[in-house]
């Protein structure tokens, strides 16, 4: 079974992550996700990303983080490319968080235009500090998209949030029950896709430009 499937229909691309486990964002998973996003972009499709029931993703592959070295570096480089691919996407981006969303997966939520979370006993967290990682320079500007009163708790204290707290913090725009989640996300992505595409694309780029500049400065070490 493939860990990722792409479906294109009626101007909407759906990317489903399902490795049968926790959808760890290994280099292989990230490269497959980037390739699917490229295909969706070529089709000029609005984009919906979701995970398997109970989990969007546990974030980067913890085994590679623990091991370090070239494989870990390649994984994180692919993750940085994913950040830019989501920021630069020229059409609406909706993420349906089907459950747990940890670390890199939580950052993905912050890069989407609209985020719907599954109500239930799920964890959402920027848990880098909790697992002994200093928050990467390119991640901090993304974290600042959170509601200011939650930033310290999420980025510095690595507080694990439930879906209602994640809604308040700004990871989600709304919550839905598991049975309604995907249908609600599909309705939303079609609503956004119906907006004037040129105006949406140009406004999206303007909206994301300051964050993109901060991310690029952190990745390249070049400040404007």
UniProtKB/TrEMBL annotation:
Pfam family, one: ECH_1
One BP term from GO: fatty acid beta-oxidation
Entry's transmembrane regions: none
Molecular function GO terms recorded: catalytic activity
Domain of life: Bacteria
Similarity annotation: Belongs to the enoyl-CoA hydratase/isomerase family.
Protein name: Enoyl-CoA hydratase
């Amino acid at each position: 079974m493939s860990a990722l499937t792409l479906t294109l229909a009626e101007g909407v691309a759906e990317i489903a992550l399902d490795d049968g486990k926790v959808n760890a964002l290994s280099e292989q998973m990230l490269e497959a996700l980037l390739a699917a996003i490229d295909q969706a972009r070529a089709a000029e499709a609005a984009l919906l990303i979701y995970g398997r029931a109970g989990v969007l993703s546990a974030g980067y592959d913890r085994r590679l983080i623990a091991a370090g070295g070239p494989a870990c570096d390649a994984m994180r480089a692919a993750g940085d490319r994913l950040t830019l691919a989501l920021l630069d996407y020229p059409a609406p981006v909706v993420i349906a968080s089907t459950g747990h969303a940890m670390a890199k997966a939580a950052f993905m939520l912050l890069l989407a235009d609209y985020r719907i979370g599954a109500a239930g006993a799920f964890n959402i967290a920027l848990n880098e500090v909790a697992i002994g990682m200093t928050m990467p320079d390119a991640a901090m500007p993304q974290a600042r998209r959170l509601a200011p009163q939650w930033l310290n708790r999420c980025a510095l204290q690595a507080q694990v949030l439930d879906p209602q707290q994640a809604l308040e913090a700004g990871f989600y725009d709304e919550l839905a029950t598991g049975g309604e989640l995907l249908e609600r996300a599909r309705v939303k992505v079609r609503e956004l896709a119906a907006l004037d595409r040129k105006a949406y694309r140009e406004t999206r780029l303007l909206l994301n430009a300051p964050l993109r500049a901060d991310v690029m400065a952190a990745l390249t070490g070049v400040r404007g």
